[in-house]
Amino acid sequence: MPQTDALVIGAGPVGLFQAFQLGLLGLKVEVVDVLPQAGGQCMALYPDKPIYDVPGVPRCTGRELTSLLLEQASPFLPIDGATGQRPNLHLGQQVESLTQADGGWQVTTSTGWACQARAVVIAAGAGAFVPRGLGVAALDGASNLSHQLPGEFVAELPGDGRERHLGATPPDWAGQHLVVAGGGDEALAAVLSASRAAPAHRPARITLLHRRDAFQAEPEAEAAVRALIQSGDVQLVLGVPQGARLTRASTGPGSSIEALQLLGADGLPFDLPLDHLLVRLGLSPKLGPLTQWGLDLERKQVRVDTATFETSLAGVHAVGDINTYPGKKRLLLCGFHEATLAAHAIATALHPDTPPHLLYTTTSPVLHQRLGVKG
Asked: What confidence tens digit (pLDDT) does each residue in 52-65 have?
């Protein structure tokens, strides 16, 4: 089982800066996040919208901020030259359990990965971002239901100027009727991706299902999808899901959806037959297993000591939007400040015999060596 000085739960901006601060103080760090990419809320909700209140950076997007923070943390979250991945950045998995272990804590994730850490920092923002569902209980466990594209394959949008996918292999939906549910950027991007896939992967029929004939997406994406609807390459169906017709009487991993049962705008029910249902209604934050760890919570936030940002569990700290204390402000600047104080508190606790001298990156040879600065 891997062992580390500190494990950070959350790879959003505050979590990435937390990893940097811990590494700067000479501590080995691992980072875990439920999303398939680093950046947290910035990447999940507004990757290309401007942010104006990061100190010293007049304007940047969530994507740019994530890239800068990853670059800054690279000495401590290095890239493996052979794989192109960061071995101690564990994405696409949720921390399920946090239990006391010899000299610290043991964490286990939803993928079965486990690690022992002498200290833990929860930088989970508003919680773990998970896909929103349709709210139809009968769909749970259906084999032809997806909430996220495998590898998050997303086609390049007109005028976007860059590929925005994490994996390069689209799903094989050739000959199938694909229904995409949603009216935001995620749903429209999925429609565009499927419509532009190679013939070996392209669905025979694509339907966009939404509650109303209005989208909440970037203008370029909406224009592209509207053009596909007008040309007949994509069918737009308006309706509210009420239920589903399954291949079996009982739900479970072996069942599949034959048709969605919808309520139309005219108040009449109708069925929408399909081969595969892709739900792209965005993400919502949930505290999830965190509520079972014995932390002192107040209105879905973790109470902390502002001197160390330690929680009610010794050796477990919380920074960023997940914590609360008198005067708390949910701002990036405050999260960066909290991460710095938490890192120093952890370093002092793990190395009590080391004099707590404050070093500066402008002049300290020790910090230059840790950062890989030459000369």
From this structure: 999 999 999 999 99
Residue holding tokens 């594209």?
A: 149
- CB 188, CB 225: distance < 8 Å: yes
Using DSSP's 3-state secondary structure scheme, residue 178 falls into strand
pLDDT tens digit sequence for 310-368: 999 999 999 999 999 999 999 999 999 999 999 999 999 999 998 878 999 999 999 99
| CATH fold label, 3-129+284-371 | FAD/NAD(P)-binding domain (3.50.50)
Same fold, 3-129+284-371 and 133-281: yes
The CATH architecture to which 133-281 belongs is 3-Layer(bba) Sandwich (3.50)
End-to-end CA distance of the chain: 38
pLDDT tens-digit profile of 305-322?
999 999 999 999 999 999
Closest residue by Cα to residue 20 from 335, 331, 340, 354: 340
Residue whose pair of structure tokens reads 């689209």 in the numeric block: 170
- What Å distances lie between residue 39 and 44, 51, 255, 276, 296, CA to CA? 7, 13, 35, 30, 27
